[in-house]
Amino acid sequence: MSFRNSVKGLDQLISGDMKEGYVILITGAPGTLKTAFTFTAMNGMLSESGKRGIYMTLEHKREDLLWGLKSLGITQHKNLGIVDIAGFKNNLNQISGYNITGTGFYELMLKTMESPIENGTEGPDGKPWFCAIDSLNVVLSVLRISHEDRRDFVNNFLNILKSKNMVSLVVHEETGQDLDEYYIADAVITLGIDRTDKNMPYRYIIIRKMRGIEHKLGQFVIDANKEGIEIVGQKMKT
Ligand SMILES: Nc1ncnc2c1ncn2[C@@H]1O[C@H](COP(=O)(O)OP(=O)(O)OP(=O)(O)O)[C@@H](O)[C@H]1O
Ligand SMILES: [Mg+2]
Predict the structure, then answer these.
(1) Measured in angstroms, how far is the CA atom of residue 124 from the centroid of ligand 2?
(2) pTM here?
């Protein structure tokens, strides 16, 4: 399950490998390549392992997600199932006339996460081995988790993911303040956009934490183009 080889150039930052039950948070402001990075990492891990994975998209419909990734040359790996879980809920609500909200939706999401999809080798328990959730913000809003309950909910949710024996990537859009639950995640990766001293914008990645794995801490530059994304090297002063 080589995360370090899943995105071009990521091996410059990471020395070791992660184990099952590992939960990685991908954070950043809007438009910082969170989705592109997460999808590319999933594709890469699936290619290398031959296992299968599930991408739960809550912000976009499946077609919109794929359309957005197309301009970056990113396509769906054959072992990747994409589930538009919020759309699925809405369709189900419309068809059945039954309003699935709250705990019903949460259960549906947790079950879907482990549901079999057709292609590829499965995990040892017959379930997908890799899981991505894009994004945690929408999970919190669909479930109407109040600010006071957020800490407990995220704590519980990440612990559920940890118990599932897969590697999970959870996208979280930064909203000005960090989630204080970041300590529960095994790894926190921040993506961003900054400017050089000469006022030239560039994209970057920082690995803020990665439990049990040797990694670099600096700001590394990410290049995005129609061939995909690539970590090109450490940010120099200017
Ligand atoms: N061919 C390309 N070359 C360079 N940049 C591109 C190309 N195609 C798309 N992009 C950039 O990729 C960005 C989309 O990245 P992505 O959707 O992964 O970001 P995100 O952090 O998930 O955003 P959001 O906050 O909308 O969820 C676009 O906003 C655009 O700036
Ligand atoms: Mg996104």
Answers:
(1) 30
(2) 0.93
